[in-house]
Amino acid sequence: MEPKKNPKADLRKNSALYFVLGLFVVMLLVFIAFEWKTYDKVADYDISLNVEDALDEEVPMTEQIKTPPPPPPPAAPEVIEVVEDEEEVEETVIESTETSQEEEIIEVEDVEVEEDDIDVDVPFAVIEDVPVFPGCEGASDKRACFNEMMQKHIIKNFRYPEIAQEMGVQGRVSVMFTIQKDGSIGNIRYRGPDKNLEAEALRIIQKLPKMTPGKQRGRAVRVPFSIPIVFKLQ
């Protein structure tokens, strides 16, 4: 059987040549695309034409400032006539306080200077003669006796406030007072955790008896004293 197609019309003939030519054309276009350059448009006009010649401009002349003339010199002062004061001035005579040999010198007797009664506070720990608590007059160590009698007084008069017991309040109240120069108790100060405990501590100190005042260098002085009162629930 004979073929129907013409052997000259075979499309596969020379296909390799066409492929190479096509590849060459594509590579050439890619190369031209990479090497293509563009430039900005540059103005061709002359820049110097827009610059005006500043030398041709006329510069105005500066007006001359006229300074005012200096002021005239001041007139010469008038001659002042000195008029003598006709009033007479009395001279003050200062007498000398120095004594002459003829005057007698009176001797002044020695004047006794009374010492001012200055109020001072001498702490209990350093005072020479401590205040004497009633009952300690014959004690050899009045300082130790004073502290012992203070403890007995607190224990004897101690009473725990009922409202503080119900509330479960307890603690220590620091009390400070002053034994005055007449032996009385004054200037009572206190500080504690509860006002009911403070009131009880104040009541105990106010019941202290009158004492023999403390002395410093033989003179009665005020003596500050502090003591803690402990309130503790059993």
Automatic annotation (TrEMBL):
<comment type="similarity">
    <text>Belongs to the TonB family.</text>
</comment>
<dbReference type="Pfam" id="PF03544">
    <property type="entry name" value="TonB_C"/>
</dbReference>
<dbReference type="InterPro" id="IPR006260">
    <property type="entry name" value="TonB/TolA_C"/>
</dbReference>
<dbReference type="InterPro" id="IPR037682">
    <property type="entry name" value="TonB_C"/>
</dbReference>
<dbReference type="GO" id="GO:0015891">
    <property type="term" value="P:siderophore transport"/>
</dbReference>
<keyword id="KW-0812">Transmembrane</keyword>
<keyword id="KW-0472">Membrane</keyword>
<dbReference type="InterPro" id="IPR003538">
    <property type="entry name" value="TonB"/>
</dbReference>
<dbReference type="GO" id="GO:0015031">
    <property type="term" value="P:protein transport"/>
</dbReference>
<dbReference type="InterPro" id="IPR051045">
    <property type="entry name" value="TonB-dependent_transducer"/>
</dbReference>
<protein>
    <submittedName>
        <fullName>Energy transducer TonB</fullName>
    </submittedName>
</protein>
<keyword id="KW-0653">Protein transport</keyword>
<dbReference type="GO" id="GO:0098797">
    <property type="term" value="C:plasma membrane protein complex"/>
</dbReference>
<feature type="domain" description="TonB C-terminal">
    <location>
        <begin position="145"/>
        <end position="234"/>
    </location>
</feature>
<dbReference type="GO" id="GO:0055085">
    <property type="term" value="P:transmembrane transport"/>
</dbReference>
<dbReference type="GO" id="GO:0030288">
    <property type="term" value="C:outer membrane-bounded periplasmic space"/>
</dbReference>
<keyword id="KW-1003">Cell membrane</keyword>
<keyword id="KW-1133">Transmembrane helix</keyword>
<keyword id="KW-0997">Cell inner membrane</keyword>
<dbReference type="GO" id="GO:0031992">
    <property type="term" value="F:energy transducer activity"/>
</dbReference>
<feature type="transmembrane region" description="Helical">
    <location>
        <begin position="16"/>
        <end position="34"/>
    </location>
</feature>
<keyword id="KW-0813">Transport</keyword>
